[in-house]
Specification:
The chain has 421 residues and is an alpha/beta fold. Bound molecules: iron/sulfur cluster.
Length: 421
């Protein structure tokens, strides 16, 4: 049986899809990552915005277009939030955010031709379920260390869908990394709120990182909350041999008023202090962020304040989201701004993003690039501070760490191209 896995949303979903793929391959199924003609489709859905949810539903039609007789199984945040929207589309199985590690068993049932009632969504487990997640062999592996979130930002539905924060056992994580093939040269720690990673109830991220550092693989963090950044934390990161100086620090808004309304736990001043600390220890750090535009209390003036702050920080890139009302959240009771206004603001931020990305690249003189694959005529990979580089080389340099100079890069949009002899 051919199985195609379609993943929407964040890196945690990606990690979990990889794990599902792995368990299905182990059972001897032919599994594809992405939309391909198949007998069974698994759609790992996302509900972070209304748009993501819509795309999750649309994925069903795209699968049916490829094979109208295929079985379809959905799981993830959108089906956890509202299973009815998928039931109406007549899918064969609906799961939620938990127990994705049992999907392979459901697939076995389908393969045996057994019919089963649409399963009820499983309750969110309060304890982290041990997942036998061994990530597929690639240059980079995502390692899930945590799930859930306790922050309850006023706009966010995720804590309601993924439950409270729970951390994976240290030994489980170390064993997963130990089992990775040698070709995996870089690991990225993912979770819904990595900042909240705990060992025996205490903040455990630094201890985890120092243990992982011993494997000699490059280490990245996927996304961090500003609240974890203090001198002790950054100093500890700087003492690691393999830590990549790249930080995705979620800002969401540069306006103190909007941050308060979002129930974020810091002010723009706190955020700026954290960025300065990072730059003190990592002068060439890449620092990207998430920004939500059009939050209900974001007036024109507050948006300008936010733009000004974002420019002042000089991020190396922005991930821009238009505010999307999520029923059940505190902010959903506030009056929504018009979609036209949100679009206009997003466009202004996109222009700023382009300028910031170029300025960041121009400040850099070079770096060590882990080459991942060939794209057209170029070998591509990322520098330690996450600049995507296009390397022109006569030799196959895949899976090597190449030291490159950007002295004469020629920029094509945001592309850094390098000639390597
Ligand atoms: S930190 Fe806030 S935005 Fe992030 S998952 Fe938790 S509640 Fe959502």
């Amino acid at each position: 049986m051919k199985i195609s896995i379609v993943t929407l949303g964040c890196k945690v979903n990606k990690y979990e899809s990889d794990a599902i793929m792995h368990s299905l391959s182990e059972k001897g199924y032919e599994v594809f990552d992405g939309l391909r003609e198949a007998d069974l489709y698994i759609i790992n859905t996302c509900a972070v915005t209304g748009e993501a949810e819509k795309k999750s539903r649309q994925a069903i039609a795209r699968c049916r277009h490829l094979n109208k007789n295929a079985k379809i199984l959905v799981c993830g945040c959108a089906s956890q939030k509202n299973s009815l929207q998928f039931e109406e589309k007549g899918v064969d199985f609906i799961g939620g955010t938990a127990r994705k590690n049992f999907i392979a068993q459901y697939v076995d049932l389908i393969a045996c031709g057994e019919s089963f009632e649409k399963q009820n969504l499983s309750a969110l487990p309060l304890e982290y379920e041990k997942e036998d997640f061994a990530t597929q062999s690639r240059v980079r592996a995502y390692i899930k260390i945590q799930d859930g979130c306790n922050n309850f930002c006023s706009y966010c539905i995720i804590p309601y869908l993924r439950g409270r924060s729970r951390s994976r056992e240290l030994d489980d994580i170390l064993n997963e990394v130990k089992a990775l093939p040698n070709e995996v040269r870089e690991i990225v720690l993912t979770g819904i709120n990595v900042t909240d990673y705990k060992i025996s109830g205490k903040s455990g991220l630094i201890l985890l990182l120092s243990e992982l550092d011993k494997f000699g693989k490059r280490i990245r963090l996927s996304s961090l909350e500003e609240t974890i950044v203090d001198e002790e934390f950054v100093k500890a990161l700087a003492s690691l041999k393999n830590f990549c100086p790249f930080f995705h620090l979620s800002l969401q808004s540069g306006s103190a008023k909007v941050l308060k309304d979002m129930n974020r736990k810091y002010s723009p001043q706190d955020f700026e202090k954290s960025v300065n600390l990072i730059r003190k220890y990592f002068p060439t750090a890449g620092i990207t962020t998430d920004v939500i535009v059009g939050f209900p209390t974001e007036t024109d003036d507050l948006f300008e304040e936010s733009m000004h702050f974002i420019e002042k920080i000089g991020f190396s890139g922005l991930h821009i989201f238009q505010y999307s009302k999520r029923d059940g959240t505190v902010a959903s009771k506030l009056k929504d701004l018009s979609s036209q206004l949100k679009k206009q603001r997003a466009k202004r931020l996109e222009e700023l993003d382009k300028r910031l990305r170029k300025a960041f690249i121009a400040q850099n003189k070079g770096g060590k690039v882990l080459v991942e694959e060939k794209e057209g005529d170029f070998y591509v990979g990322y520098s330690e501070n996450y600049i995507k580089c296009y390397i022109d080389s006569d030799q196959d340099i895949t899976n090597q760490v190449i030291e490159v100079e950007f002295e004469k890069p020629y920029l094509e949009g945001e592309k850094v191209k390098i000639k390597q002899n």
